[in-house]
Amino acid sequence: MLTPLQKDALTEILNIQLGRSSSLLSEMVGQKIILSVPEVDLKNGSELNSDALKRVGLFDASKFVITSVAFGKEFNGNALIVFPQDKATVLVKACLGDEQVGEAAGLSNIDADVIKEISNIILNSIVGEFGNLLDRKLEYTQFELTYSIEELDNHKIIPTDSYVLMLYTSFLLTKSRIKGVIFVALSSSSFDMLLDRVNLMLKEVI
Amino acid sequence: MIDWKQQILDNICTGIIVVDAAQRVIYWNKEMERLSEIMRPDAMGLDISELCPKLAESRYQDILHNVFTAGQSRFCSSALHRSFVLPQSCQDSDSVRQNMMIEPIWNDDRVEYAFLHISDITEHTRNERKLKDLNDKLSEGYRSVQAAERAARETAKYDNLTGAYNRSAMKCEIEKIISRLNPENGKLALLFVDIDSFKKVNDTFGHIVGDALLQNVAGRLLNNTRHGKSRHYDVVARLGGDEFVIALSDMKDFGDIARMSDKILNLIRKPFYIGNDKLCVSASIGIAVYPDDAECLDDLIDMADKAMYRIKRSGKNAYRFFSVQRQTSCL
């Protein structure tokens, strides 16, 4: 549904924003964190569930941490970031070092707060960039954190009739690489707005 | 008229601040008074950075700027930021932990105010740490118990005096050897070894020397067989008193078994030097062969025991096969 050129354009836009998020996160946790989106894909909301996550080979874990935020008005949708729980624990450990409270098997409330803040920064930059691109002011709901993959399966977070940008995200830390995935679910009209803008940009370049 | 909204905001356990676009405080609730020790009338109208100096740092200024310009809310976790506002009387500021959320308050299409809510989670963090420490100690304790159990299980296999296997471990170890033995390639010889006239040693030199002799005999047997801690081919065990059992695996033929039995007799015949005493002893060995004599371990032990008693009756200091035919062919 996206041409290679459209994919490239979106990947580049998102990587510029994530570069800024990387600097912010690195400064905050006192170590180098490189965030990148090597690949962007477009899916239909009805195709997205935990099985789809397993099929793309990202998650063979059974436990996940999902942070989500809804945004609106004219350009509207849901954005969420999904980490396998064990990878989220590695990320928290890398960020906190000795400060980490949780056990390897799970996340404490304090660890979950760290994931919530990191996700908040990343989703703000991605959704914010879409707002800038379209010159639209966005309103956001509260960030919500859940461990329930059923919410994804039951399409409580991603509506079946939405278009979903799937961003394969990679966190490069000093000692490890952590993979996550970001979903930006857009209504049909919002997706058309975004695509029109991307096409316009491509036309200007070509 | 009752100002119920004011009462609700003053009764919740979250510090609430509202600032305008110039970052001047236009609301400060009771919990903020507790967290900062700054009373509402003193806080109103002041710049937020004067009341919470940390928020003057560029990263928080960027967040506030983003709230007003992009309408983006932002969560700041205690783990990464520790705290945002401290009372002047605070003695232990390092231990204070607060979460903060900053959100826009919209007026039509414009963000008019920023709404900051600060939750004091110091006690909660302390409790989580205590739980973690407790959990770590429990895990460490559990690992120690497991290690002790493993060590105890290992120790329980050996005879305290000689370090050879004890009776119960012997059976288990020999069964293991039998299970992997291919009778076409080799036999297992079960040797029942009894020190001759051991009672005399105890009566003459005392039990301490008697025990030392048993330790020395076991040492020679262990050092001269293929008895090892990992995969072993032979088993040396002490059944009690002066009785030992040796299982020799992969014996090619009866001649092989006879040569090993002779070797063991010679090992025991060599003098033992214990303290100032020189002890010369001999042994009698009864032999049963798997699978030729029996396939059951208890039967093999019983046959070897009987063969050993036959040699005792006929003069000691020699070995004897349970099967008379084999005894004759090997001599």
How would you sum up this structure, described in words?
The complex is a heterodimer of chains A (206) and B (331). In chain A, 45% of the residues lie in helices and 26% in strands. By secondary structure, chain A is α+β, with helices and mostly antiparallel strands. In chain A, strands 1, 2, 3, 4, 5, 6 and 7 form a seven-stranded antiparallel β-sheet that branches. In chain A, helix 1 (4-29) crosses helix 6 (188-205). Chain A is globular, with a radius of gyration of 16 Å. Chain B is α+β, with helices and mostly antiparallel strands and 331 residues long. Helix content of chain B is 46%, strand content 23%. Chain B has helices spanning 4-11, 30-36, 40-43, 48-51, 58-70, 78-81, 122-155, 167-180, 198-205, 207-223, 254-269, 297-313, 324-330; strands at 15-20, 25-28, 74-76, 98-107, 110-120, 187-195, 234-240, 243-251, 272-274, 277-279, 283-290, 319-321. The termini of chain B are far apart. Chain A binds chain B through residues 24, 27-29, 92, 95-96, 99, 101-103, 108-111, 113-114, 116-117, 120-121, 124, 128, 131, 137-140, 142-143, and chain B through 59, 66, 70-80, 99, 101, 103-104, 106, 109, 121, 124-125, 128-129, 132, 135.
Short description:
The complex is a heterodimer of chains A (206) and B (331). Chain A has 206 residues and is of the alpha+beta class.
